[in-house]
């Protein structure tokens, strides 16, 4: 029979695992980001601060003035949403504070680093094009992968014509680098 303390400990561990993905990098770690990604995060922060939060505060104030708050859905859900917005504002501020903006549009670089757009062929003959971007800009359907992803780490410092090894759960796969470009994303 499981004890309540064990169940709560497991729930706390699960919650900590969920929060790890959204935590800022550890002290001293870099948070590389492209100018477009930085502008997107900055725009979201401004929208939350200038529009959403003030409007929500008005609704909560109105709901609080209606009397009994224990059964007031506008008040209860408004306060919950306000906590979510405040959490997101803190998160965005932390990410922007440690952000190191790097413009991917540069010339004269033949190796793969942050900001590179790489075309490679895997061992099955499937050709893929990916752009190496910051953790906050990952968008797999558009081919944007994080600079700390396994594929990006395997490709790091390689050049056109190189064959790199990628460790996957199914084993080691070889990737043949076809083209390396640095373009504005």
Explain what the structure shows.
The chain folds into two domains: 30-101, Transcription elongation factor, GreA/GreB, N-terminal domain (Helix Hairpins), CATH 1.10.287; 116-182, Transcription elongation factor, GreA/GreB, C-terminal domain (Chitinase A, domain 3, Roll). It is 42% helix and 22% strand. It contains four helices and seven strands. The protein has helices at residues 4-20, 35-64, 73-97, 150-155; strands at residues 31-33, 99-101, 116-121, 127-133, 144-146, 163-168, 171-182. The strands form two sheets. Strands 5-4-3-7-6 form a five-stranded mixed beta sheet. A two-stranded parallel ribbon has the order 1-2. Helix 2 runs antiparallel to helix 3 (73-97).
């Amino acid at each position: 029979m499981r004890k309540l303390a064990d169940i709560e400990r497991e729930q706390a561990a699960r919650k900590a695992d969920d929060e790890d993905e959204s935590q800022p990098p550890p002290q001293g770690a870099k948070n590389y980001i492209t100018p477009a990604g930085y502008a997107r995060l900055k725009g979201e922060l401004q929208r939350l601060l200038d529009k959403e939060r003030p409007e929500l505060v008005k609704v909560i104030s109105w709901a609080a003035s209606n009397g009994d708050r224990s059964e007031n859905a506008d008040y209860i859900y408004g306060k919950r949403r306000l906590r979510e917005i405040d959490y997101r504002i803190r998160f965005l501020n932390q990410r922007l504070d440690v952000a190191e903006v790097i413009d991917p549009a540069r010339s004269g670089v033949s190796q793969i680093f942050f900001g590179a757009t790489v075309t490679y062929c895997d061992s099955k003959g499937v050709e893929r094009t990916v752009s190496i971007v910051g953790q906050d800009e990952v968008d797999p359907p558009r081919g944007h992968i994080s600079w700390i992803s396994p594929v990006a780490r395997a490709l790091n410092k390689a050049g056109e014509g190189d064959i790199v090894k990628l460790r996957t759960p199914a084993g080691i796969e070889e990737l043949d680098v076809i083209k390396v470009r640095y373009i504005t994303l």
